[in-house]
Amino acid sequence: MARCDQGYLCSVCGEEVEVLLDSELYLRYVLGEVDPELLPKLPERHLRCNPSLAQFIVDESFAAVVLDGPFAKAALDPSFVAEEEARVTAGYRRLLELSGPDRAGSIWDYPLANAREAPDRSEDSPTAEDGSAAGRGGRADDRGPSSR
């Protein structure tokens, strides 16, 4: 089968990521962590193949993911966990909306409203190696101009 007929293959398990609702890449996109121009270039994963992110989805339509070890949410600061659960669950619920019959017409409309306002997409804006904005504000350092 030609690559274009296969769709996106999960970089962890090798299986096809068949639907938007299973896409870790598109969850990160709706959260504002991925530049839309990099979507076709970045590796795809099933949500469940990235348990460190999936553990923060708290929705009755998504079976809970429990992670062991130092990155398990049980080992993290409770206020951080609450913030991440709210943020990642909101992103997952946006994927639910987009998977329905009334989905947004343009990929530019996919991100959550609060994610659309943050990233600085200028050419000199630092980004992480995976194409995500460095930090939630889109810049590596949100402290403002240097006082030098």
Describe this structure in words.
With 148 residues, the protein is mainly alpha-helical. It has one domain (3-116). Helix content is 28%, strand content 0%. It is built from 5 helices and no strands. It has helices spanning 3-6, 24-30, 51-54, 78-99, 113-116. The longest helix has 22 residues, at 78-99. The chain is globular and about 40 Å long. Mean pLDDT is 79; it is low at 119-148.
What is the average of the pLDDT values?
79
**Extended strand count:** 0
Computed over alpha carbons, the radius of gyration is 16 Å
* Alpha carbon gap, first and last residue: 58 Å
Helix content: 25-40%
Counting helices, strands and paired strands, the structural category is: mainly alpha
How many distinct folded domains? 1
Please give the largest β-sheet.
none
What percentage of amino acids are in beta strands?
under 5%
Count helical runs.
5
Q: What ranges have pLDDT less than 50 throughout 5 or more consecutive residues?
A: 119-148
Order of helices and strands: HHHHH
* C-alpha geometry: globular
What is this structure's SSE topology?
Layout: H1 3-6, H2 24-30, H3 51-54, H4 78-99, H5 113-116
Summary of the model, kept short:
With 148 residues, this protein is mainly alpha-helical. Helices cover 28% and strands 0% of the residues.
Notable characteristics:
mainly alpha, disordered C terminus, single chain, globular, 148 residues
